[in-house]
UniProtKB/TrEMBL annotation:
Gene: hflX
Protein species of origin: Gilvimarinus xylanilyticus
Protein name, per record: GTPase HflX
Gene Ontology terms for molecular function: GTP binding; GTPase activity; guanosine tetraphosphate binding; metal ion binding; ribosome binding
Localization per Swiss-Prot or TrEMBL: Cytoplasm
Protein role: GTPase that associates with the 50S ribosomal subunit and may have a role during protein synthesis or ribosome biogenesis.
Subunit structure and binding partners: Monomer. Associates with the 50S ribosomal subunit.
Stretches assigned to the Hflx-type G domain: 199-365
PANTHER family on file: GTP-BINDING PROTEIN 6-RELATED (PTHR10229:SF0), GTP-BINDING PROTEIN HFLX (PTHR10229)
Length: 440
């Protein structure tokens, strides 16, 4: 840190006000869960209503006195607001309460700092923290006449505040350059997957909706999954094989939350781009949550911010085991899947999810019985590599008949690689109708 702050502890007094400003209020229960996720120990919650925030302290003078009493009574070393405080409000509150004061953005940044595991994740968290800190440097320097010494630097020099700001700008610039490289690498990976015609399916949703548990169920992995907010921070991608589709890249992403601080949306743009470039979004929803419609709206809002609002989306209502419901698929008027009800914890309904993904992501398939001569060994080998052959039988002349089912693009890529054309192939019975009509 570039400024001195009181030693912080875990005993925390929470502040949640209902404001008449027209902004949608935060959820006090979610606020308490955030504090617990950060490792805090809430000892008291201060509530109330105001038309507008107090310019100096955010709360009124009466509430400020109440907070001072609670801090002294519980010997709390931290006061956390479920609101966004201005730097001056934060500074004035710390002076009045004689303890550390944190707002909602700072709290979420602290949780992210604890959960970041990869190098990229730590960089993104540090970037968000530095941007947040850059507006709060002034609190630590009431003396602004410190000078920077050294040959060639004598004279008026720099104030310490100016030095800190310069150091911050330099570090922010350095991190942005590194994250730009990460973004370039991700873009190269996406282009290679597109060239290979491998669709990407991204799990998105409100924090603690069960995305990582569902990811583990589908992939057989052991990604960290706990019943807490922001258990997943770093994106995880795995290749999975699905019937009738073949290879699919499944991406587990960071969870969203109400009024996600804009600093975090900006800092995590490289990560969130995995969602904005997906072939299909699986919007995982906690079906047992009382506020589930509100959570759906918040996720859709963030998806709009990152340019993913218009992507194909399948809603996945998770945790139906808590509601004693049976798994099912909901469809629109045209019969396309729009929602799947399942339990990632028990696995009930996951096969319905596979079915829905196949219908939404799967391309037009070539189906038929293909006759392969003994000289077509390379073509036969490639078809088996793609898991495109269901059954195989042999005729007396040595030719084999394979029951074929494969996406059109995959089949044409195989033929192109072997310098073959569709017209050269021999079929048992009629050739696939769609391609006869197309003139192949």
């Amino acid at each position: 840190m570039f400024f001195d702050r009181p030693d912080s502890g875990e005993l925390a007094v929470l502040v949640h006000l209902e404001l008449s400003s027209g902004q949608e209020p935060e959820d006090p229960r979610e606020f308490e869960e955030l504090v617990l996720s950060a490792g805090g120990d809430p000892v008291a919650m201060v509530g109330g209503q105001r038309d507008t925030p107090h310019a100096k302290y955010f709360v009124g003078t009466g509430k400020l006195q109440e907070l001072q009493g609670l801090v002294e009574e519980h010997r709390a070393e931290l006061v956390i607001f479920n609101h966004t405080l201005s730097p001056s409000q934060e500074r004035n509150l710390e002076t009045a309460l004689k303890c550390r004061v944190l707002d909602r953005t700072g709290l979420i940044l602290d949780i992210f700092a604890q959960r970041a595991r990869t190098f990229e994740g730590k960089l993104q968290v540090e970037l968000a923290q530095l941007r947040h800190m850059s507006t709060r440097l002034v609190r630590g320097w009431t003396h602004l006449e410190r000078q920077k010494g050294g040959i060639g630097l004598r004279g008026p020099g720099e104030t310490q505040l100016e030095t800190d700001r310069r150091l911050l700008r330099g570090r922010i610039s350095s991190i942005e350059k590194r994250l730009s490289k990460v973004r370039t690498q991700r873009e190269q990976g996406r282009r290679s997957r597109q060239r290979a015609s491998i669709p990407t399916v991204s799990l998105v949703g409100y924090t603690n909706a069960g995305k990582s548990t569902l990811f583990n169920n589908i992939t057989g992995e052991d990604v960290y999954a706990e019943d807490q907010l922001f258990a997943t921070l770093d994106p995880t991608m795995r290749r999975v094989e699905l019937d009738d589709i073949g290879a699919v890249i499944l991406a587990d992403t960071v969870g969203f939350i109400s009024h996600l601080p804009h600093k975090l949306v900006e800092a995590f743009r490289a990560t969130l781009e995995e969602a904005s470039n997906a072939s299909l979004l699986l919007h995982v929803i906690d079906a047992a949550a009382d506020e589930r419609m509100h959570y759906i709206e918040q996720v859709d809002e963030v998806l709009g911010e990152i340019g993913a609002g218009e992507l194909p989306q399948l809603r996945v209502f998770n945790k139906i085991d808590l509601l004693n419901m049976e798994p099912r698929i909901d469809r629109d008027d045209e019969g396309a899947p729009i929602a799947v009800w399942l339990s990632a914890q028990t696995g009930a309904g996951v096969e319905l999810l596979y079915q829905a993904i196949t219908e939404l992501v799967g391309e037009e398939m070539i189906e038929g019985e293909l006759i392969l001569a003994p000289t077509d060994g390379r073509l036969r080998a490639r078809l088996f590599e793609q898991h495109a052959v269901g059954e195989e039988s042999y005729r007396e002349d040595g030719c084999s008949i394979v029951s074929l089912r494969i996406p059109y693009s995959d089949f044409m890529r195989i033929l192109s690689g072997l310098n073959l054309s569709f017209a050269e192939l021999e079929w048992h019975g009629e050739a696939p109708e769609d391609y006869q009509a197309a003139g192949f």
